[in-house]
């Protein structure tokens, strides 16, 4: 349902993505692993045009964007179909948890206020924050703030949720609660692409694992393939270093 074809991206002279092809099926959870600087975050950000690829194609279902000359409408549509969960949560500081989740529903989806509120409450309850609707980000732990970020993404009912290292800013004791929420929504069949350094989590939540290095996909396969019998030396070295 999501198909990336030959995605290229450079920052100045540095080519960060070198012809990435990736297919993600509906309901699949894909983990993207790889050393720091390999282009994982940039790839994720290209999927919803937070970064503009230099060339390539992005398809979601039967909708295709040619990245060389996308129209504004194409980019808008792509953003409607995707939602991002950021490393640093990216919540509005002056809005409550509820208002943070409602924002996209009011502004992007243009829903009536009551409906936006109902959907937002439902999703905050789903991530275990039904009792924190009126709390401001500063009154929430990092784990709770990230759960608001996840509720915000879920509430938009996107075709795919893109997670950019969702636990890397958290204190170790708060990582578990966020991974538990992601695990729960993965079971509901929501398509997800997750950039993560949590190998254990990738191994047991992902259906498909992609290993990137130096702006290319070095190897991909089932968690079993990648973690138990990686074919490429670069994958083996990485796993040896990190586990
Ligand atoms: P990863 O997520 O695998 O750590 P990134 O996608 O963040 O890798 O970065 C890949 C490369 O692109 C790095 O060398 C990084 O310094 C560079 N890079 C990322 N974002 C920018 C940017 N906005 N401007 C210039 N260089 C960037």
From TrEMBL:
Keyword check for NAD, yes or no: no
Question: Mind listing the GO molecular function terms for this protein?
Answer: ABC-type amino acid transporter activity; ATP binding; ATP hydrolysis activity
User: According to its record, how does it sit in the membrane?
Assistant: Peripheral membrane protein
The name of this protein is: Arginine ABC transporter ATP-binding protein
Q: Which UniProt keywords apply?
A: ATP-binding, Cell membrane, Membrane, Nucleotide-binding, Transport
Primary residence? membrane
Species the sequence originates in: Paenibacillus nasutitermitis
Tell me one Pfam family matched here.
ABC_tran
Name where it's found.
Cell membrane
Supply the InterPro entries for this chain. Answer: AAA+_ATPase (IPR003593), ABC_ATPase_HisP-typ (IPR030679), ABC_transporter-like_ATP-bd (IPR003439), ABC_transporter-like_CS (IPR017871), MetN_ABC_transporter-like (IPR050086), P-loop_NTPase (IPR027417)
Query: What range(s) does the ABC transporter domain occupy?
Result: 2-239
Q: Which domain of life is it from?
A: Bacteria
| One GO CC term, this protein | plasma membrane
Read off the SUPFAM superfamilies from this record.
P-loop containing nucleoside triphosphate hydrolases
């Amino acid at each position: 349902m999501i198909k990336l074809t030959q995605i290229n991206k450079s920052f100045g002279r540095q080519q960060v993505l070198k012809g990435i092809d990736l297919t993600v099926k509906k309901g699949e959870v894909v983990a993207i692993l790889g050393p720091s600087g390999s282009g994982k975050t940039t790839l994720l950000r290209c999927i919803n045009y937070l970064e503009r690829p230099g060339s390539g194609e992005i398809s979601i279902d039967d909708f295709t964007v040619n990245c060389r000359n996308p129209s504004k409408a194409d980019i808008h549509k792509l953003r409607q179909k995707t939602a991002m969960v950021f490393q640093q949560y990216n919540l509005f500081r002056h809005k409550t948890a509820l208002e943070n989740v409602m924002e996209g529903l009011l502004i992007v989806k243009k829903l009536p206020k009551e409906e936006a509120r109902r959907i937002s409450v439902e999703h905050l309850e789903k991530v275990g924050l039904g009792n924190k609707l009126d709390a401001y980000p500063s009154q929430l732990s990092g784990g709770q703030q990230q759960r608001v970020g996840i509720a915000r993404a879920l509430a938009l009912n996107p075709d795919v949720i893109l997670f950019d290292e969702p636990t890397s800013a958290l204190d170790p004791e708060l990582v578990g609660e966020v991974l538990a929420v992601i695990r729960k929504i993965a079971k509901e069949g929501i398509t997800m692409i997750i950039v993560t350094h949590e190998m254990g989590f990738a191994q047991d939540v992902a259906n498909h694992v992609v290993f990137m290095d130096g702006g290319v996909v070095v190897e991909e396969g089932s968690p079993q393939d990648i973690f138990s019998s990686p074919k490429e030396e670069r994958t083996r070295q990485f796993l040896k270093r990190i586990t």
